[in-house]
Design brief:
single chain; mainly beta; ten-stranded antiparallel β-sheet; five-stranded mixed β-sheet
């Protein structure tokens, strides 16, 4: 039995022991055990493929494999066999994150082979590798691997997460690396995906953006270039960058001839607790679609007790907003999840609370507030359990601050996240609740917050509320959502 078969067999055994209390109903998860970064996002032969970092033998992080799902509509996902297992000397510490391209009909995965030189001291030797497939399911590793083994002088053994795209006649690759305490992204180019020329540093920390830049992605959006990455080691500043590690972006102008990237300041992409290692791809509708890891390193993961850990976010479409900002909204196909529709509040003034009873686990909610007719200082929504549990989304109107409070739904003392949102007289809250997650998209994705929640009580319902005055609610609609895994 080879390594892939062994991993698949172990996974199927583990699957039979999983406790389903927090299992998600419409998100990408492994059948059991650990997952983290999304990898290899691509539309190939008319189907969407998502790979992910996976440890099929344990609910904790371990030697990384690539798990694999595919979908025709970004909503209904099918599990496929594990795509990559660490089988070669150059990757015996794991097949780390990477990307996928369609190379004239050949599905090509570009990933990092990891070697631990001294794990306790965090000394690594990482290289870039290739595996190919003509059926989209079974992959053969390139005999020439690793295709990039030499670490650039500007980097170190922390040299990982290749994201590859084609521009004109060349393939390009960005990689995350570090030099001492400076995080950076470096750039390569190639004619054939096998022989790579080092171009140089695309961007690096100015001293405030962390010691390591993971999971870089580089693309055009709305006429500008965007460098998306996950910096490690940034200090929190007020309401910003409060997680252990962050995910955000730089926008600006890029010149392929000179490798000059003139960019503005760093912006966080999602302001919740659990969003990391995001990757994007372009689909045949011209959409730039992003999926992230819906967890955070060193966070409490109660699902480990249940035989699994980690999930991916809903697919989101990225669009260019104002002042170099990116907006992020759920892809339209997610409307396919909707079952019953409930219009429960239209043109209503809320003073205190307005309660809507629903025991459903899986719901989507759309609530619109007319702030021009609101004199309350704060307005928002509670998602209530039958006793003490509550998750709160609120908007502090004078401060123009959106707040997510999960302190009474599994997050405890670190349960609050906030971000600035200039609502300009209108607040639209669209959010998705799964059994152990919440994803909030405010004002068409101007502000987004993603967090895992772990309620242990039965759902009581949704409660609109206003504090210190009245709030004018234009409407509230909620939908019950189907469970794609049942």
């Amino acid at each position: 039995m080879n390594e892939l078969q062994q991993a698949e067999e172990a996974l199927q055994k583990a699957k039979s022991k999983v406790n389903g209390r927090f299992r998600l109903g419409y998100h990408i998860m492994a059948p059991a055990n650990w997952i983290n970064d999304p990898n290899g996002l691509i539309q190939y032969n008319g189907e969407y493929h998502v790979f992910y970092q996976h440890h099929p033998y344990d609910e904790n992080w371990g030697p990384m494999h690539w798990g694999h799902v595919k979908s025709k509509d970004l909503v209904h996902w099918d599990h496929l066999p594990i795509a990559l297992a660490p089988t070669e000397e150059y990757e015996k510490g794991g097949c780390f994150s990477g990307s996928a391209v369609d190379d004239d009909g050949v599905l090509t995965l570009i990933y990092t082979g990891n070697l631990f030189i001294d794990r306790e001291k965090d000394i690594l030797d990482q290289s870039q590798c290739i595996a190919t497939s003509t059926d989209g399911i079974h992959f053969t590793k390139e005999p020439l691997n690793p295709v990039i083994s030499e670490i650039p002088a500007e980097g170190s053994g922390h040299f990982r997460d290749p994201k590859v795209w084609k521009h004109e006649e060349y393939w390009y690759m960005v990689l995350g690396t570090r030099k001492e305490e400076t995080g950076k992204v470096v750039l390569y180019k190639s004619k054939d995906l096998r022989e790579w020329e080092y171009i140089g540093v695309l961007a690096e920390s100015d001293g405030t953006l962390g010691y390591m830049w993971e999971c870089p992605d580089f693309f055009e959006l709305g006429g500008k270039h965007v460098l998306l990455f996950s910096p490690q080691g940034m200090d929190a500043q007020g309401d910003s960058c409060k997680n252990l590690f962050q995910t955000g972006y730089l926008t600006g102008a890029y010149n392929y001839e000179t490798n000059e990237f003139e960019h503005g300041s760093f912006n966080e992409l999602d302001h919740g607790h659990d969003f990391y290692a995001v990757q994007t791809f372009l689909d045949d509708k011209g959409r730039r679609i992003a999926i992230g890891w819906m967890d955070m390193w060193e966070s409490d993961m109660p699902t480990k007790e249940d035989g699994w850990a980690g999930a991916l976010t809903l697919p989101r479409e990225l669009t260019a907003g104002k002042n170099g900002k990116i907006q992020m909204s759920p892809v339209q196909e997610l409307e396919l999840l909707r079952e019953a529709e409930h219009h429960v509040c239209v043109d209503q003034t809320v003073s205190g609370q307005f309660f809507i009873e629903t025991k459903e686990d899986l719901i989507e909610v759309r609530a619109d507030f007319d702030l021009s007719k609101t004199d309350a200082k704060t307005a928002g929504i509670h998602i209530r359990g039958v006793n003490e549990e509550v998750t709160t989304i609120k908007y502090q109107i004078h401060e123009q601050k959106l707040v997510l409070d999960c302190s009474k739904s599994g997050k405890g003392e670190d349960g609050i996240r906030s971000t600035v949102l200039q609502a300009d007289g209108r607040l639209s809250l669209r959010f998705f609740i799964d059994r152990s997650s919440i994803e909030i998209f405010a004002n068409e994705g101007q502000a987004v917050m993603t967090s895992r929640i772990y309620p242990k009580e039965e759902r009581l319902g949704i409660e609109l509320f206003a504090e210190d005055g009245n709030a004018q609610v234009s409407g509230l609609t909620y939908w019950t959502l189907k469970d794609i895994w049942e």
